[in-house]
Amino acid sequence: MAEASVQMEPMLALMADESRSQLIKQGAEAKIYASSLITSSTDASADKVAMLLKYRFPKTYRHPALTASITAARTTAEARALVRCMRAGVNTPKLLCADEKHGVLGLEYIVGRSLREALGGGNEGGEEEAVSREPPQPLLSDSEALEAMGLVGEQLARMHHANVIHGDLTTSNMMLRAKLPGDDTRAGVAHQEQALVMIDFGLSSTSAMAEDKAVDLYVLQRAFASTHPNSEHLFAKILDVYQEQLDTLEGGTKSKTKASAEVMRKLDDVRQRGRKRSMVG
């Protein structure tokens, strides 16, 4: 019976195999493992593809039936958000495999560093504990940082054009990696060496409402304010490119060029509500 159980739960067995999987991050909601995917089940010499395993582990404080339901729903929603983004041209890790029952996603391993690290930002609240760390790399210069912000604005525009709301936009959930031949970058925000990849869609949802997109942007603005002091010019660059790209993606007709204007109007409303809450405490 035990052997049959392992066969039914191959991704859990893979995580438990220390020769192939290593825990690299631990968060409140999930554990992240560096692992590999064998491309053939019959060929012993088949190539191994590096991948990450994201495991939503069971919560002991919840009823098992409720935990199973929530885990399956959130894992499925994240997988669908990734597929939707990829179809819209958003740079995300490729979805390699999924086990919604046990809360495991197999994702492309992105070789790079977080945008927070590249900008020299401080720690964010609730940041996952890193089990292992790479050697530090040089920080982006101001001109390089502005180029990276253009990439952020472009990716956010594509994501929102696909009506995907990330739900947890921070510079920790964006990665810079070397540009690959297949990367699609719009004219005007091309970066010579790097591409920006959006990660961690665990809190994502779908919505066509301008206010939901504005809240997404406001979360990122607050993250910049708390993690990257004196970064107002960087966030302004994100919004400039975001508006330009969103209007381009919407088709550029008279009726559709208002798409970004509506999101910006809602962003101003969200900011006002945020200030009022801060004043009231």
| CATH topology (level 3) name of the largest domain | Transferase(Phosphotransferase), domain 1
> What does the overall shape look like?
globular
Uncertain runs with pLDDT below 50, 5 residues or more? 1-6, 186-191
Number of H/I helices = 8
Q: Averaging pLDDT over every residue, what do you get?
A: 87
Task: Please give the alpha-carbon distance between the first and last residues.
Answer: 57 Å
Strand content of the residues, in percent?
A: 15-25%
Strand order of the largest sheet: 4-5-3-2-1-7
* Main beta-sheet strand count, sense and barrel state: 6 strands, antiparallel
What would you report as the Rg, rounded to the nearest angstrom? Answer: 20 Å
Number of domains: 2
CATH superfamily of the largest domain: Transferase(Phosphotransferase) domain 1
Under CATH at level 1, the class of the largest domain stands as Mainly Alpha
Number of strands: 11
H/E element sequence: HHEEEHEEEHEHEEEEHHH
Structural class estimated from helices and strands: alpha+beta
Helix fraction, binned, reads 40-55%
